[in-house]
From TrEMBL:
Keywords: Cobalt, Hydrolase, Metal-binding, Zinc. Belongs to the peptidase M20A family. It comes from Haladaptatus pallidirubidus. Coiled coil: none annotated. Its cofactor is Co(2+); Zn(2+). This is M20 family metallopeptidase. Pfam families: M20_dimer, Peptidase_M20. PANTHER family: ACETYLORNITHINE DEACETYLASE. GO terms for molecular function: hydrolase activity; metal ion binding. Residues 178-283 form the Peptidase M20 dimerisation domain.
Length: 392
């Protein structure tokens, strides 16, 4: 296959995947799962449909070869909702291809990554099966990444694992050996309701929330002093405030949500303790009743900057697209944590496209970047599978 045919094949596949709406919530991945499984079967590659962790939201696991080393190519097929369609110049599920860009929800995050993973398996399958290319290749089409559900974790536990992993998120082909963690906390301040004509009869939860908001602001200031050479600063950002039921009712509850971005050397247990201490201090100082709950967690993760896997992908990215081989980390959170923390697999986050496009109106991917990604992934995969040992 020449380069033109390869680009056409890639563009068609990305467009097909984008045109299958897989919004999460609610979790509409099933039609895409079926498409991917059929796509592999049409090419003589066995694709397993996995009904865990949720029977109504199946995933795809593919394995080609039986020897080692084994490389796992991971992509999630769920996308965030498109939001207000009037804000889109291009239909979010039309997969418009215009002036070298393909538009649509999920085009960057991360159906382009899924597409280059699928094509890499398809292009190398015969050589792996014949033994011409040693090693094995595994592919994931995972559900639920956007809402921290255990899609990738379940696939790894089901045997679709290996010696190395690549989470094909958009990094502009930079090789991320570390990533920030993410935790969302919901903090509730409790008061007593009353009619607004008798405000002193109740206790206004909004007023009670003021000292908590001040304490959270101070906490963010302190947290921002923490930094990592690859992923940058830590943050603690108030992102939601909800209170009140009616215009003439003193609110009995105020709910505050914070988004806590944390570094590889911070543990979730440490952060829980910090939130608990902050809440306790405000309660004691102001006589307020406050409760808190961590509602979502993406653990931070990191591997050695000079790992074998990182070195190979840095080299091929530099060769194909002149990408700097310098150590790098990603500030977003990805399923790479499931590889490193849960399965003890050396893994990176790497892929074509710009993360700045993720979750935006008129999300799009530069098709030249997608093509570079496929070329680099094919080369890096062949090199990894040809290695005669696995790093300790």
């Amino acid at each position: 296959m020449d380069n033109t045919e390869q680009v056409e094949e890639l563009t068609t596949l990305i467009g097909d995947l984008v045109r299958i709406e897989t919004e999460n919530p609610p979790g509409n991945e099933k039609a895409c799962t079926e498409y991917i499984a059929n796509w592999f079967e049409e090419r003589g590659i066995e694709a397993d449909v996995i009904d865990e962790p949720y029977p109504d939201r199946p995933q795809v696991g593919v394995k080609v070869g039986s020897g080692g080393p084994t490389l796992v190519l991971n992509g999630h097929i769920d996308v965030v909702p498109a939001g207000d369609r009037d804000q889109w110049t291009h239909d979010p599920y039309a997969g418009d291809d215009l002036d070298g860009r393909l538009y649509g929800r999920g085009s960057v995050d991360m159906k382009t990554g899924v597409a280059i993973g699928m094509l890499t398996v398809a292009h190398l399958a015969d050589d792996i099966k014949s033994g011409e290319l040693p090693g094995s290749l595994v592919f994931h089409a995972a559900i639920g990444e956007e809402t921290a559900e255990p899609g990738t974790k379940t696939l790894l536990e089901s045997g679709y694992d290996g010696d190395y992993g690549v989470v094909l998120e958009p990094t502009r082909l930079h090789t991320a050996t570390s990533e920030k963690g993410l935790a969302w906390y919901e903090i509730v301040v409790t008061g007593d309701p009353s009619h607004a004509s008798r405000p002193d009869q109740g206790t206004n939860a909004i007023q009670f929330a003021k000292p908590l908001l001040d304490a959270l602001d101070e906490y963010d200031t302190d947290v921002r002093e923490r930094s990592d050479s690859l992923v940058g600063q830590a943050y603690s950002t108030v992102t939601m405030f909800e209170a009140g039921t009616k215009e003439n009712v003193v609110p009995e509850e105020a709910k505050i949500t914070i988004d806590r971005r944390f570094l590889p050397d911070e543990s979730i247990q440490q952060i829980d303790s910090e939130i608990d201490a902050l809440v306790g201090n405000v309660e004691d100082e102001h006589g307020i009743s406050i409760s808190w709950n961590r509602t979502r967690t993406y653990e931070s993760a990191a591997i050695a900057e000079d790992s074998v896997l990182a070195d190979v992908f840095q080299k091929h990215s530099a060769r194909v697209a002149d990408v700097s081989p310098e150590p790098w980390g990603v500030s977003a959170s990805t399923d790479v944590r499931n590889f490193i923390n849960d399965a003890d697999i050396e893994a990176i986050t790497w892929g074509p496209g710009d993360l700045a496009q993720a979750h935006t109106y008129d999300e799009h991917v530069e098709l030249s970047s997608a093509a570079d990604g496929l070329t680099a992934l094919l080369g890096a995969t062949e090199e990894i599978l040809s290695r005669n040992h696995v790093s300790e």
